[in-house]
Amino acid sequence: MTAEIIDGKVIAADLRARVADEVARVKREHNLVPGLAVVLVGNDPASEVYVRSKHTQTQAAGMASFEHKLPTDVSQQDLLTLVAKLNRDPAVHGILVQLPLPKGLNTEAVINAIDPAKDVDGLHPNNAGRLAGGFEALSPCTPLGCIILTKSVHASLEGMNAIVIGRSNLVGRPLVQLLLNENATVTIAHSRSRDLPGLVRKADLVYAAVGRPEMVRGDWLKPGATVIDVGINRIPKEDGKTRLVGDVAYQEALAVAGAITPVPGGVGQMTVACLLVNTLRAACAIAGLPKPAV
Ligand code: GUN
Fold first, then answer.
1. 130 marked among binding-site residues
2. Domain containing 166: what range?
3. What one-character-per-residue DSSP string does 134-158 give?
4. Which pLDDT belongs to residue 68?
5. Residue 17: how many CB atoms within 10 A of its CB?
6. 154 with 220, same domain?
7. By its UniProt entry, which Pfam families does this protein fall under (predicted)?
8. What local confidence, expressed as pLDDT, does residue 191 receive?
9. What confidence score (pLDDT) does residue 245 get?
């Protein structure tokens, strides 16, 4: 038996199309154009690729995209001044400051300065706290994408055993909260967990978000488990180039899992699509409109 491959490309394209339909509707019915501002500090090549893709996809969905590029040596004060300006700008409904920030800048202070109503990354303590409390919140995009991918296989996650490996603010912690909201039973594992293979073996749903290439082995998995691989690790090849691998040993897992996301072409595709969803939701909420249909 070989696992079903969960096609993030197809699912993300479908989501983007549904966002574009809703954007067209709010434009037509309410003269509202959702706008996303992305702030990139410095010239980290990976971040530049992500930011360009956010810009292209935001415009393709019919939304306004505002890019702000700041030099690596920008002062904390100048960065906070830009965030304050975006908070006040009525054309901007979503603000994303690309992470990681260069050394010397205080990430926590920058996130705290973003208006929680425009915090489409879901990282502001107001949103993180609301999510943890089970209240309506803007939630981080990658975990939202993980839930959508899981639901492409399972209509309901109620009562399923899920394990989240990794406890970052951007992925692991919010993913745990979203799974609880779906009535899954959640184990949170991390680098200090004892007997990780034993914990993973009990799980119907496995989320690997540790950033360690191919750490989760095929023989750790319960046969038939659904595996969502959040890892994007660049490892060197013999010819000097690099290849992308996830946090799961894909070939091994393919023989045991019931369904699995590939890397690339799985979770990565979903993050930007969910950012568009969050921007649309933020724009509707700020304008006092009902929640959009996506
Ligand atoms: N860097 C990598 N992923 C993300 C993300 O989802 N949001 C932000 N702000 N930075 C990132």
1. no
2. 141-269
3. T------HHHHHHHHHHHTT-S--T
4. 98
5. 13
6. yes
7. THF_DHG_CYH, THF_DHG_CYH_C
8. 87
9. 97
What does the block give as tokens for 22? 């809703």
Residues of the chain with pLDDT under 50: none
- Tell me, what's the pLDDT at 294? 95
Element (H, E) at 161: strand 161-165
Residue 151 sits in a domain of what CATH number? 3.40.50.720
pTM above 0.90, yes or no: yes
Residue 271 CB less than 6 A away from ligand 1: yes
The three state secondary structure string of 97-115 is ECCCCCCCCCHHHHHHHCC
Name the DSSP class of 85: H
| Domain match, 83 and 199 both | no
| pLDDT number for residue 1 | 76
Distance separating alpha carbons of residues 246 and 269, to the nearest angstrom: 14
Q: How many domains does the chain have?
A: 2
Residue from 144, 170, 173 to probe ligand 1 pocket by mutation (most atoms less than 8 Å from CB): 170
- Residue 232 assigned as binding residue: yes
Whether the CA torsion 42, 123, 287, 181 is positive or negative: it is positive
| Residue 99 beta carbon below 6 angstroms from any ligand 1 atom | yes
Q: Which residues, in sequence order, are CB contacts of 244 under 8 Å at separation 6+?
A: 232, 233, 234, 263, 264
CATH code at position 99: 3.40.50.10860
Specify the pLDDT at position 270.
97
Rg (CA), the chain: 19
pLDDT at residue 189 in the model: 98
